[in-house]
Amino acid sequence: MDYTILMLIVMVAIMYFLMIRPENKRKKKAQEMRDSLKKGDVITSIGGIIGKIVSVGKDTIVIETSDDRVRVELTKWAVSSVGVQSSEQPEEKKESKKEEKKPAKKEEQEPAGDKENWNPEL
Questions:
Q1: Phi-psi region at 40: left, alpha or beta (left = phi > 0; alpha = psi -120 to 50)
Q2: 105: Cα separation from own chain's centroid
Q3: CA quadruple 6, 7, 12, 14: dihedral positive or negative?
Q4: Measured in Å, how far apart are the chain's first and last C-alpha atoms?
Q5: How many CB atoms lie within 10 A of CB 7?
Q6: Which of 13-27, 74-88, 90-104, 108-122 has the lowest mean pLDDT?
Q7: Of 16, 64, 19, 60, the residue nearest 40 (C-alpha)
Q8: CB contact set of 56 (below 8 Å; sequence gap of 6+)
Q9: For 79-111, what is each residue's pLDDT tens digit?
């Protein structure tokens, strides 16, 4: 009986250190980033909208999204990151993946076999 209680405590501790604690750290870091937003910062929203902060309120911010002075009001929790968020892979890797997806030559795709004598009824 003592062994099962000990295993239960160990499992809860492992779950805390592998799941709960890292998630709390991420939330705290994101909240600190949102609290430190200031006028002039370039942000990316959760929806992918990129803009420069024009004004900061208690719970909202107003961003300018283009040279045409289009302004959008967002809640602070909708800010994904400060700065322009780009893809994680450099352009070179993207191009090489596109090349890999191209179909192979026709001779390589078709099995070497006698097509003239092929009978689907067999």
A1: left
A2: 35
A3: positive
A4: 66
A5: 10
A6: 90-104
A7: 64
A8: 37, 38, 39
A9: 988 888 776 645 554 455 555 555 555 545 555
Give the residue carrying structure tokens 């107003």: 62
Number of Cβ within 10 Å of residue 43's Cβ equals 24
Structure tokens at 104: 């192979």
Q: Are 55 and 63 in contact (CB under 8 A)?
A: no
Where does the chain have alpha helices with state H? 2-15, 21-35, 91-101, 106-109
On the CB side of 32, CA atoms within 13 Å amount to 6
The residue ranking higher by pLDDT, 75 or 103, is 75
Structure tokens at 82: 């400060």
- Phi then psi for residue 81, to 5 deg, are -160, 160
| Angle formed at CA 79 by CA 69 and CA 77, multiple of 5 degrees | 120
